Amino acid sequence: MAVLRIAKMGNPILLQKAAPVEDPTAPEIRRLAADMQDTIEDIGASGLAAPQVFVSKRVVVYRIIAARIPPGSGLEPRPWTVMVNPVITPKTEVQTPVWERCLSVPGLHGKVPRFMNIGIRYADLEGRTHAHDATSSWAALLQHECDHLDGIVYPMRMTDLSLLAYNDEPGPLAKELEQDPKGIDPLFVDLVQRWPGRSRWFR
Fold first, then answer.
1. Active site residue 145
2. Within the chain, what is the greatest distance between any pair of CA atoms?
C-alpha cells in the first residue's frame, strides 16, 4: 500500500489514451487499485483514474461519501468501487453543466457539461462484469474519471471558460449559489462560504 504522486495538467500522460487491462484479476492491478484507494483516502478525494498516478491503464477507483451528496439529489453513499475497463453509455442527449474539481488541476474549479443519466459497464478485480445506471452528480463523477482514461481533463470539456476559477476566488460559483443553491455539491458550497470576498460582491 502506498500514497502515489498525482500527475498535474500539462504532463503528457494525462493526454494519452490508456490501454485496456487484459486481466482484471492480475496481482499488479489489485496492488494498483489498493494504492489508488490509499491515495484518495490520504487526499480526501472521491475518485482517481490510473493515468493520474502515472499508470496508463483503464482503471478507476472511487467512492461517494454522504458529505459530498447534494441535498435533494436522491443519491446514496457509494462504497469503494474499482472499475476495470469501464464503458459509459449516455441515456439522454441532453447535458447539464456541473461544477467540478480535479486532483490533476489543483487550485481550480470549473463548470462542465455532463450527462445526468448514464449506463456504465466494467469488470471488478475478480473478473466479474457489472452494469448499472448512474444519475446526477454520481454520473458526473464517473464521466470525469473515465475521461482521464481517454486523455481528457475537465477544462477540455468546458464550453464557457469564464466559469473556470481559482478555488480561493469562486466568484461565478458564489453568484450561482446566491441565485439557486439546489443541486450543488457541498464541497463547492464550502468554497464559497470560506471566501472572504463574498460579502463585497454578493450581499
1. yes
2. 56
38 CB neighbour count, 10 Å cutoff = 15
CB atoms near residue 154 (< 10 Å): 23
Q: What's the CA gap between 182 and 16, in Å, rounded?
A: 36
Set 145, 169, 176, 178: catalytic member: 145
| The one-letter amino acid at 2 | A
- Taken in order of first residue, the domains within the chain and their CATH numbers are 12-194 (3.90.45.10)
Residue written as grid cell 462560504: 193
Give the position of cell 481528457: 152
Average pLDDT for residues 133-140, to the nearest whole number? 95
What span, in angstroms and rounded, lies between the C-alpha atoms of 124 and 23?
Answer: 10
Q: What is the CA radius of gyration of the chain?
A: 17
User: Confidence band (pLDDT; 50, 70, 90) for 147?
Assistant: very high
Indicate the DSSP class of residue 18: P
- The Cα 49–Cα 47 span in angstroms is 7
- Residue type present at position 14: L
Average pLDDT for 135-141? 95
Residue 122 corresponds to which cell in the numbers above?
466494467
pLDDT tens per residue across span 35-49? 999 999 999 999 999
pLDDT of residue 203: 61
